[in-house]
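Before relying on records like the one below, remember that each one covers exactly one chain. Contacts with other chains, cofactors or solvent are not represented anywhere in the record.
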Amino acid sequence: MEWLATLFTKYPEMAVYLAIGIGYLIGRPKFRGVGLGVVTGSLLGGILIGTVFHVPVADQAKAMLFLLFLFGIGYSTGPSFFQSLKGEGWRWAVLGVFVPAMGLLAAYSVAKYLALDPGYAAGMLSGALTESPAIGTASEAIRALALPTEQKELLVAHVAVADAICYIFGTLGVIWCCASLGPKLLSINLRDESKRVEASLGIRSTKGGIQSAWQPVACRAYKIRQDGPIAGKTVAEAESSLTARLFVERVRRQSEIFSPEKTTVLVADDLVAVSGRTEALVQALGPSTVEVADAELLHIPMASFDLYVTEKKIAGKTLKEIADTYDETHGVFLRRIIRGEQSLPIGAGTVIQRGDTLQVTGSERAVQTLAPLVGTMIRPTQDSDLMVLGLTIFVGVLLGAIISIPIGNLRIVLGTSVGTLLVGVLAGWLHSVRPWFGRFPDAAILFMRSLGLAAFVAMVGLKAGPIFIGAVREHGYVLFLGGIAVTLFPLITGLFFGRYVLKLNPALLMGGLAGAQTMIAGAAAVQEKADSPVATLGYSYTVAIGHVLLTTWGTIIVALMT
């Protein structure tokens, strides 16, 4: 083992990447949808290696990776964070603040009662509330304390130890409370309540692999008769003469197939491919036309693009309102609505918000017509705006270093981590308003978030490894029991506050509680229990606020405990 120890001492990056690999190996497997997660897995991988080998880890390397992660998470949650503060979203915003605030109160109270040091207190908070980024903000706050270097390093190691101990029940507690305990405390049938929400929003859920035979938009081929109403008219005249908005996509004239212009005159015996709403095709063309089967004519290339919502005209409106108001929606299939990282259920009552991504399919002309109404068509790009990345993190670090917030007798320095997170949120919001600003491929943001946090916690684990076993023996059961209280208190108080004070729908509330503690597995468990996707709506309302506040609590808990 000595040769490996020598290699790790000379090349510590080897140990970091090994810890990440171990983390993904033990963190990705799930039992009934529940697993450790790759972040906690990487932390444990680092601790495992650190207990056997001494691996020197540079604090600057940890900081660079953590700042990259914070920018990524801030950028991706920015649009949802500001959108949740508008209109009827204020109730969900209040819930998104209330649950993390109760989590901070619980962590502080339990830590004081158990006489924990700032490191254990911060780790209990990050693990019990399942927000691993709080490890980073707490570690930064500890390093800013006026303490000897050895003591600060010990406290930082305590953060990792407590997080690893408390995270297991933190995950299980959110799942249990949202999917089982919460519905029992409110005396509701989660499945029935979710079905009522589906009915009110016009959502029709089906089993996996099953689709409805009804297609709201279709393309069919017809033969123009000698005495037909559109014979001798241009395409523009033919389309405008019909009571519904229909499109002439292609024309077969004798043996030639072509895409017509608006000025193309349609003549008798032409075969035309017409697209539009199915009911419009039946009502406008059914009785008076001859439908034909022409596979070649109907072989129309379809365009699939992502449309990014920035226009105020449709933001805040339901899908039904948009479809009834704007003709530009005709001829386009809506496949998915993505808010943040979550796919929302599609129904007539689903509300579109700025920052949503609409995945649509239709003829290229129809999609091009719809795009200006929605906002911006997102075309695939491999380029990242590194100027915005660099300047944003620079400004975030600068603001975090110079801004301090007075709270009673305390003056809490914002910290470079929190500063970067907040400026990242602003950059994400600006991109949602001005899509040309700060463009990053989704894969690039995902890479920042996954590698940045996994590598950071792996290095934290490497430094905590030497004291892990002793710390668990001395404080393990105390931290575990304290973590249970910290996990359940904000969930249960948030449950009754959200239901009886904010009057939130109980099915959506279960997803909102999971979002406030940033645990997607909790929302997934609610969906499985309810056999319905509606919990994702509640999750999407609160998760952005939860990420920002819970990450910030790492700084706050250290200040309170010192």
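The radius of gyration is 28 Å.
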